[in-house]
Amino acid sequence: MADTGGNAMSGAPVDFSRVRGVLFDCYDTLIDISTDERSIRPYEALSSWVSYQGVRICPDELREEYRRRIGEAMEGTEEDYPEIRVEDIFAGICRDYAVWPIDTAMTGILLARSFRAATVRKICAFPRSRHLLSALNAYPLGIVSNGQRVFSEIELRMFGLFPFFQTVVFSSDVGYKKPDERIFRTALQRLHIEPHEGLFIGDSQKNDVLPSRRLGLQALHINEAWSLFSV
Question: What pLDDT, in 10s, does the model give residues 149-162?
Answer without folding.
Answer: 999 999 999 999 99
